[in-house]
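Why show two proteins at once? Because comparison is the fastest way to build intuition. When a single record is shown, students tend to memorize it. When two are placed side by side, the eye starts asking what differs. So, the first record is below.
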Amino acid sequence: TFVLIGSAIVGAVLPELFVIFFFQRGCIRLQNARNFVFNAPFWAFDGFLVNLMYRTLAAWLGDRTSVSIVAAKICLDQFGYNPFFAAPFGIWGYAWKNAGYSFAKLRPLLTWRYYREHALPVLIATWAVWIPLMAVIYSLPLALQFPLFALALAFWVLMMTYMTNRFAGKIEADAELPISVVRET
């Protein structure tokens, strides 16, 4: 239950609050509710799978911290789970959402070409951020791995929310945010 709720909070609640406060000047829109309805189960399921993977890797490889065990877990995670499940699940899940939940519109995207053009760039960004994070996470006791993952996921999703809003033209790169910090002299 903690895994599902925690993943839904960091993957759905925090990003929508971020969008509402920083990009919509505090105004809640119907699209925020629609995003939440998609993102909450999407990220809860993802969190469930990640937690299952952490537990499975601990059972297979051990829950000890050594360079060889941590490296093996990182390799299985980042070069097995990520390219063969996490990246396709993410890009095709969001493509399905953006296509109005139409399987007919999603079907042409289930190709190697689409994967190559969309998943590979995501994987490169993922590896740059998550391989160092996974070194830290897999060095911790199993009981602490998912909570640290959830914290890292919160920052990852917030960063991706900002970038996707910027790429979609919803904000400008140099736009002034609707908050200010007053510096007293």
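Second record. Ask yourself what differs from the first in the token line.
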Amino acid sequence: MFAMTVLLALPSAAIASTGYKLVPVDQPKVKAPSDWTFRTGARIGYVYAHDSHKPNPKTGEESPLKSPHMFSVGFEMQQTMDGGAWLDVLLIQGVSLTGLDQSVAAPSARLLLGFEINNNLQLAIGPNLSAHDPSGEGNILHLIAAIGASVDAGKFNLPLHVAFMPDKNKYNVFALTTGVNW
């Protein structure tokens, strides 16, 4: 209460020097072009991890996976910065758990930067960090590229994405995901 009283008693020049701007109460808020729009939501999907179910060729150690085909579940956050016309900047962060259908927990996290075209088509690329490397060489950081669309469905939207993650040892990963954003 004391701090508010002191602030109200300060002259306008003193308030302006703090970096705050006085805005009349009746003035409507205008969205600046640099404002970010946030969407978050759950993800489910299909993942194909090439040869990840085979024994390690260097050590002969058996893979915990019985098939390269897996189910994935996760959570994703998307931010878009309005470009003012047909092109927006897109920033995506996501975490997922893959392999639960085979009693294996393979967590991963990703950060992608890209574009959203006409508030629908999305293209993004970035790093993916995974806790599992089938080659046994410790290659847990990979590049991931994704393309998809986010279809409006009333109060939420439906994301549909395809992703590809190349690997130098040919353990390439392909994923199809969907979910819901709110």
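One difference worth noting in the second protein: The two ends are 37 Å apart (CA to CA).
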